[in-house]
Amino acid sequence: MTSLKNDRYLNALLRKPVDMTPVWMMRQAGRYLPEYKATRAEAGDFMSLCRNADLACEVTLQPLRRYALDAAILFSDILTIPDAMGLGLSFGAGEGPKFARPIECQADIDNLPIPDPEQELQYVMNAVRTIRRELKGEVPLIGFSGSPWTLATYMVEGGSSKAFTKIKKMLYAEPHLLHALLDKLAESVILYLNAQIKAGAQAVMVFDTWGGVLAHRDYREFSLRYMHKIVDGLIRENEGRQVPVTLFTKGGGLWLEAIAETGCDAIGLDWTVDIADARRRVGHKVALQGNMDPSVLYADPARIEQEVQQILADFGAGSGHVFNLGHGIHQDVPTESPKVLVDAIHRFSQAYHQ
């Protein structure tokens, strides 16, 4: 077993006893840090930063130097798989992602390759190996992917969307096409995450950013079904340790029981969910991650501490809670605020783990 100086994050995901509630933040390596902006400027653009293992490692480690976080997360992007499929990904200045060749028909889906993680996506694996080496066992490394549904939204819409009309047209008018695309994406994600695990990721997470835009039955058929397939296909033990899997659907509070049935180890919660109610609903089946509104970090330290105490109290005593934001940290929060957050979680949570 690889020795870890701080393994409370992995233990909490597996609902094992911990001395305090662990914490990391979605998008903790990113634009709210001045040192990140400097490194990105050095790289030239976002994807060049992702493709440079040393620079991706540097921005992964930057938040750990400032804050006593309990995990590092690979610096990458959820759109690496569709990019490797040859859809022509670009990020315009001040704009979201765009694909030059969006998916429109059966032929487009048939022509999509399933990327080899150690070929087309080798830069991600190189980053994982570099980060894992440089962490020196201080904290575990989280690998991740976008969910098949979320990746498909970008691939069919051609970029970000507010109404998701193109992919929902496919869903309702040609569901067989969408299932073919989602199936190919699920296969790709399984290969991708397993390669990250082999390269050194000690836990993995699937980000289903847009699952919450689906109708109730459609979520189960077009999103959860494929995340379940991924969970079934993942390596669950490596280096003598269990490799926990977390599923996060933004807007997914309706489906917590169904998500827990996939066999995942933890469910990520956004801030619209009452964590006490979530714990009652899933029982001892899975751990929970979340779920502070990222905008609380705009508040003064006393208000941040108040929110931390409330969420900890709502979850209650015992293990199985990883404190996190309900989504990614905003780029203009004061850099002092995450320190207030992390220190408060560690200080106030000890009473719940006696």
UniProtKB/TrEMBL annotation:
GO MF annotations in UniProt: uroporphyrinogen decarboxylase activity
Residues that, per the record, bind substrate: 27-31, 77, 154, 209, 327
UniProt site (Transition state stabilizer): 77
Swiss-Prot/TrEMBL keywords: Cytoplasm, Decarboxylase, Lyase, Porphyrin biosynthesis
Gene Ontology terms: cellular component: cytosol
Limits of the Uroporphyrinogen decarboxylase (URO-D) domain: 22-31, 142-158
Single GO biological process annotation from the record: protoporphyrinogen IX biosynthetic process from glutamate
Enzyme class: lyase
UniProt main location, coarse: cytoplasm
Domain of life: Bacteria
EC number(s) reported in the record: 4.1.1.37
Subcellular location: Cytoplasm
Pathway(s) it belongs to: Porphyrin-containing compound metabolism; protoporphyrin-IX biosynthesis; coproporphyrinogen-III from 5-aminolevulinate: step 4/4
Reactions this protein catalyses: uroporphyrinogen III + 4 H(+) = coproporphyrinogen III + 4 CO2
PANTHER family per UniProt: METHYLTETRAHYDROFOLATE:HOMOCYSTEINE METHYLTRANSFERASE RELATED (PTHR21091), UROPORPHYRINOGEN DECARBOXYLASE (PTHR21091:SF169)
Family: Belongs to the uroporphyrinogen decarboxylase family.
HAMAP family associated with the record: URO_D (MF_00218)
NCBIfam families: hemE
Function of the protein: Catalyzes the decarboxylation of four acetate groups of uroporphyrinogen-III to yield coproporphyrinogen-III.
Subunit structure and binding partners: Homodimer.
Protein's recorded name: Uroporphyrinogen decarboxylase
Gene name as annotated: hemE
